[in-house]
């Protein structure tokens, strides 16, 4: 009689190896998230040495936030994100397309990639301090323009709404367009060269090749870039906080939602801070869902569209 060999299952080792991640996630992410949601339903703050709460007040924190300047700060955040993101994605797509085009024969690609990515390695605080010095009333930018005769008196960049928002958007663009460019280069390099060769044989020019081949093929990476950018934009804090010294000047037009949240945390108003965090989570989820729906291709081969067209033809024939 031959003895049956015992089958060895290695499935448990997979669970063992991923267990540390789930333990870390539960302790440092899930539990704080649930605790934040719990705090949002309580009145919990400090005035001096007196501590009030936690007292359950239901949805009052959420109602109070809607009556506050939260919507205005949300608009500020959106405007500064758009100022930074639009040039970021345009420049990233342009550079990624150039660096991956074999016909251009660009030399020193690795060097340029490193240079493009370098701003991403600089801390936001250093960037903010640098721009604060450069664009101050007595800074080098004003001095150069006065010496060249372009202006007659110094420009108060940080004293105007347009100037402050533009500087914040420009800094976000400089810090993140390199990271976006590298990801898009990797996405375009993942496209089969046979597709581009067939495109060239069909007589497509560079513009047609970009819009009809490159963009549709890198749609998943574009969706990922847009989602992460939206989340990062809603969490915009360090650059405007340092550049405006936490005041959101001028006239709080550069105050972001996270700066507003930080003010509640400073005043120990944990209930309002928790409610604002929940609002941010909901807005992020809705925006990411919209982006996913807009960029997700459920019919890559066109079979569903063809079937719908055939049904329409049959209905018209019956009528």
From TrEMBL:
<feature type="transmembrane region" description="Helical">
    <location>
        <begin position="12"/>
        <end position="34"/>
    </location>
</feature>
<feature type="transmembrane region" description="Helical">
    <location>
        <begin position="167"/>
        <end position="189"/>
    </location>
</feature>
<feature type="transmembrane region" description="Helical">
    <location>
        <begin position="111"/>
        <end position="135"/>
    </location>
</feature>
<dbReference type="Pfam" id="PF00528">
    <property type="entry name" value="BPD_transp_1"/>
</dbReference>
<feature type="region of interest" description="Disordered">
    <location>
        <begin position="300"/>
        <end position="319"/>
    </location>
</feature>
<feature type="transmembrane region" description="Helical">
    <location>
        <begin position="210"/>
        <end position="231"/>
    </location>
</feature>
<keyword id="KW-0472">Membrane</keyword>
<dbReference type="GO" id="GO:0055085">
    <property type="term" value="P:transmembrane transport"/>
</dbReference>
<feature type="compositionally biased region" description="Basic residues">
    <location>
        <begin position="310"/>
        <end position="319"/>
    </location>
</feature>
<feature type="transmembrane region" description="Helical">
    <location>
        <begin position="78"/>
        <end position="99"/>
    </location>
</feature>
<feature type="transmembrane region" description="Helical">
    <location>
        <begin position="270"/>
        <end position="292"/>
    </location>
</feature>
<keyword id="KW-1133">Transmembrane helix</keyword>
<protein>
    <submittedName>
        <fullName>ABC transporter permease</fullName>
    </submittedName>
</protein>
<dbReference type="GO" id="GO:0005886">
    <property type="term" value="C:plasma membrane"/>
</dbReference>
<keyword id="KW-1003">Cell membrane</keyword>
<dbReference type="InterPro" id="IPR051393">
    <property type="entry name" value="ABC_transporter_permease"/>
</dbReference>
<dbReference type="InterPro" id="IPR000515">
    <property type="entry name" value="MetI-like"/>
</dbReference>
<keyword id="KW-0813">Transport</keyword>
<keyword id="KW-0812">Transmembrane</keyword>
<feature type="domain" description="ABC transmembrane type-1">
    <location>
        <begin position="74"/>
        <end position="291"/>
    </location>
</feature>
<dbReference type="InterPro" id="IPR035906">
    <property type="entry name" value="MetI-like_sf"/>
</dbReference>
<comment type="similarity">
    <text>Belongs to the binding-protein-dependent transport system permease family.</text>
</comment>
